[in-house]
Amino acid sequence: MTHSTDVLQQEIPGGETASFRPVVDRYGRRLRYLRISVTDLCNLSCTYCNPVKGCAATHPHKLSWEELEFLVDVGVNDLGIEAIRITGGEPTIRPGLVNWVRRIARHGLHDIAMTTNGILLGRMARPLREAGLKRVNVSLDTFDGEKYRDVTRGGSLERCLEGIEVARQVLDRVKVNAVLLRGFNDHEIPDFLEFSQRTGIEVRFIELMPIFGQKDYFHRHFISVEEIKERLADQGIHLETEDGGNRTGYGPATTYRVVGSRARIGFISQMSDTKCLSCNKLRMTSDGALKPCLLSPKEIKLAPAIAERDRDTVAEALRHQFLIRAERYDALEALNDPFQRSMQAIGG
Ligand code: SAM
Question: Are 287 and 266 in contact (CB under 8 A)?
Fold first, then answer.
């Protein structure tokens, strides 16, 4: 099923050059990006992510840091993976994160980014930067302290904002991720635009996905990106696309500038308009399952091969999981066939 078999070369630290065979599927998509969940545990418990408060983590973090470094090494040197996104659970609560980032930064990646709730960034952004982290996306769904406490089940908005501010000072780029929730934050869109205008931070609005059988919650709170765009137009707020509306970076967002302002916003509309055709990534859960897509149940349990440092098996699994990906995945199907894992467990 492999379609391009040309051998490519890339520089690795120390001035050497590694050869690898890129993985390109039958739709012309090339594997470039691995999203790694380093723990199931989280210090918050957001209602849209984790339906049951305190939902127990089954495998807090099954793979050791050494094992995760081996995975990155195989991905980069054997398959040409260029970018890693660290996620969870909440990655910053796993002890040893900074050292691990320092170690994987030596593998010649173009980009190391992290998705976080920002609560611990106030003290961790600097050491992470020094270790090699370049970018963070911080989850922030409201600017109202009480609502923030409610949706996160106990979090402090102040600490999140403080974390964002320190990250903004030391990292190459900070973005804010806000999950759109009808009746909760859909009337705060102007506040997010004002925040972006004031800080220069891009805010990405994410359509709510139905997880873990949250049918009622989903129907109550889902609001489409299209509706948000219409509301903005009604309020005289106009958007212009950047790069003709193409994706920027390795992620799935379409980004816009707000006309007449320095505010920048992105939309991730995986429910109404998927970006499957430009998707270049695979996901690794914290218990060592390799997933072709957030929406696919076809996992390969890779922990044993990683534990044995079985390079060929790990490389073959990465290749296989990328090549079996469907042309598109339909997130709405998840409503009838709820995920077996919460978003927290997959590493949303
Ligand atoms: N703890 C980190 C955080 O808060 O960003 C990383 C893990 S969290 C699962 C990763 C991302 O998944 C967050 O941006 C979060 O907003 C998003 N997410 C979680 N549940 C979601 C859902 N039901 N629909 C859409 N996005 C969701």
Answer: no
